[in-house]
């Protein structure tokens, strides 16, 4: 009897192991045969990913944990010294001079007077890689809002060393047009939180000096073009109307005056979809593909994808690949992944790493099939 119970437990353990370990997947895509394998698992809604110089990964988990994932997939305990967040630790980025200063930047939902605000801060990764020391806020969205939605928020450094932080409209669309708020804006600051003197509203009283562009709904994708150095941004549309923009300073990207989609509650947004005084998206989707992170692929491992823009599809459960000619999108491929993808990043090995948006989220690696 005891032996039978033991055997049953062993069999159950084996069954649960095999259901948890996903086999490598071979995918035939338009331009390449690729293998998708699980690198790490057990991450609670992983959101942002930054590669340390030695190949380890700093990964945010949305409920508020920052962890380090080793090259062979071991997940560290949460790092100490990270900020208190309200259900929303979002992006992570390394300082461009990380090798010298060890600075790590985070975006998150900060609880504060009046509700919640998208915030960004930075701290120094300690030598043991167990904590961020001296973490402090470098930006906090003004004003806070009691609505717990549309927080953005990605981080990106442009080649001139400026730091961009993307915002959402906090589900208060009209505020995306109000230059006295950071809501529905793209923010540009120096890494220490100060405002660059050449920001568009520094000398104009009508706008907050940290604003770069406005009329955005909810930007969760930022990527710097490898050749031009220009920042590209992706935002969620309402019902339809997901967009890619190349945000220029002092430009109005239209939300909610115009959109390629309609309001979530079914109210139509009057057509036309753009106006001469507004900047239009370079590409858009209706119905929505609902993408979050994005990256330009520059590696040599998947030569057929070099120069493409890759997007992490949530509702579309796909890796979306756009081919480009300059700033024009010339083609689109959706590679079904079978689960929500939150982010896509290129590793130092030239392979692609995806984060799945699940309670038991994983890091997937996409490599060429040989
Ligand atoms: Ca727009």
TrEMBL record:
Signal peptide location: 1-21
Domain Glucose/Sorbosone dehydrogenase: residue ranges: 43-365
One Pfam family of this chain: GSDH
Keywords, alphabetical: Signal
Protein name (record): Aldose sugar dehydrogenase YliI
Gene: yliI
Bilayer-crossing regions: none
SUPFAM superfamilies assigned to the protein according to its UniProt record, in alphabetical order: Soluble quinoprotein glucose dehydrogenase
Gene3D superfamilies, per the entry: TolB, C-terminal domain
